[in-house]
Amino acid sequence: MKRNTWQREAVRGALDANDGFVSAQALHSALHSTGSPIGLATVYRALADLADTGEADSLQSPEGESLYRACSTNDHHHHLICRNCGLTVEIEADAVETWAKDVAAKNGFTAAAHVVDVFGLCAACTAKAAASAE
Ligand SMILES: [Zn+2]
Ligand SMILES: [Zn+2]
Ligand SMILES: [Zn+2]
């Protein structure tokens, strides 16, 4: 069942306005700063719901935090994510697709799926880090 409550729409809107992956907490404080009375538990629920219906991508940060993003496509894709500013680039990874299929087949696995996301520092953050190190 699809619930289109105002809370869900508010969370969806905040996600759309954000370019990179964000945590429920970051999205909650963004909504609060615009005067929304939405609760953190509701934000968590709405994000899980959006991820379930494929309206948002979700992934785990290296620190184990769940992050969400409204991606431009529902098709299978991968991400490059800046661990400092959250900048996200959607990427295709043909080499990964081939490798995943081959390695699954070799081990007799069917219906194999995979999640591959690359975390690092974006060009701007790398330049900033280099500048402040001088
Ligand atoms: Zn995505
Ligand atoms: Zn960055
Ligand atoms: Zn893939």
UniProtKB/TrEMBL annotation:
Binds 1 zinc ion per subunit. One of its GO terms (molecular function) is DNA-binding transcription factor activity. Its cofactor is Zn(2+); Mn(2+); Fe(2+). Zn(2+) binds at residues 82, 85, 122, 125. SUPFAM superfamilies: Winged helix' DNA-binding domain. Gene3D superfamilies: 3.30.1490.190, Winged helix-like DNA-binding domain superfamily/Winged helix DNA-binding domain (1.10.10.10). GO terms for cellular component: cytosol. One of its GO terms (biological process) is regulation of secondary metabolite biosynthetic process. It is found in: Cytoplasm. Fe cation binds at residues 76, 97, 114. InterPro entries: FUR, Fur_C, WH-like_DNA-bd_sf, WH_DNA-bd_sf. Homodimer. Belongs to the Fur family. This is Transcriptional repressor. It comes from Cryobacterium lyxosi. The lineage of its organism: Bacteria, Bacillati, Actinomycetota, Actinomycetes, Micrococcales.
